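Progress report, Aim 2. The chain analyzed during this reporting quarter is listed below.
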Amino acid sequence: MAQSSSAIRNSKRDVAFKWEGRDRKGQKVTGRLVAANEQALRGELRRQGIAATRVRAQSQSGGGGKVNQGDIAIFSRQLATMLGAGIPLVQAFEIIGAGHEKPSMRKLLLEIKSDIEGGTSLHEALGKHPLHFDALYVNLTEAGEQAGALESLLDKIATYKEKTEAIKKKVKKALFYPAAVLAVALIVTMILLIFVIPQFETLFKGFGADLPAFTQMVIDLSKFVQAKGVYLAVVVGVGFYTFFYFKKRSRKLNIFLDRVMLKFPIIGPILNKAAIARFARTLSTMFSAGVPLVEALESVAGATGNIVYENAVMKMRDEVATGQRLQRSMENTGMFPNMVVQMIAVGEESGSLDTMSGKVASFYEEDVDNAVDSMSSLLEPLIMAILGVLVGSLVIAMYLPIFKLGAIV
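Predicted structure tokens for the chain:
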């Protein structure tokens, strides 16, 4: 069955359609097109010699919601591959955009395509969407356009985005496990306190004897949760809202949180390694693209993903701008292991800073992978142990009066 991925010039009101029809030979064909309305779509299909038999508009709100950096990473690889295959830039955007499953991403790419068709350079068109294409992405694209090596630079960008997204996923996985342990433990405990413990309390009233201190403590806790549970939930909800509200707006709070997380047991070493991996990967990509070191360090700082490292790299940039060697400025921060500093020093001396920083990045990316996998293996039995202690303690508290009664009898 033939497929068509052509697209009509996009505007803010354009709609994506899925269509079925027959070509000049009477064969059934299907595809997706973006057009202002169904009439414009049918007109475009007629110009292609296709008689549409069914046209269906696609929802603009479905398909996964807003564009994320994972979508940008996949797009970067697709674009690099198509340009490497000799497909013109506008046509590559048309193919990728019209065939994308996510409406928001399709709209973004077709808007960029329209800008390029209007005479705008690629880096300028990307720069109009700073939420999706940061300064580093735009600067590398501009360097590729000016050097006449756009295909090569896009390939480097695609590799960079894939590596950094993989690291982000690993870090999120590392942070998710402890949060999951606490959440599951809290939910199970609340269920027992609200629904199970009161049933035992009714049973114990018929004993006519004092309850063990541990059992009475658990029953009192159950009564408190039942009576004040709604207020507790409101307080916790307001607390979370306030925390995230100030986290988005207070740089001092973020610096404090990032510094604390770097020193946190188990999680801290993983976050340190991830920041170093992003630092080295970004430095390698920028330097191999011919970006001057001082300018590259400014982009590297924002890509580390941690404000403590960001401040350290900005300090390094200032020192390098005054003539200091990169190796010495890294040592002055006290944030980088000796092995990293020495490999960067070798890269500076041999004129292969991009290669050596790339090796540092690969080493730490693999180290993060192994650390997260090891932590996951350790946390699985830890989850069971925590739940066992919580549930077991409540069960023991409820059965102590029964054991006591049995001993008296």
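Residues 7 and 98 are 6 Å apart (CA to CA). The longest strand covers residues 15-22. These observations will guide the mutagenesis work planned for the next reporting period.
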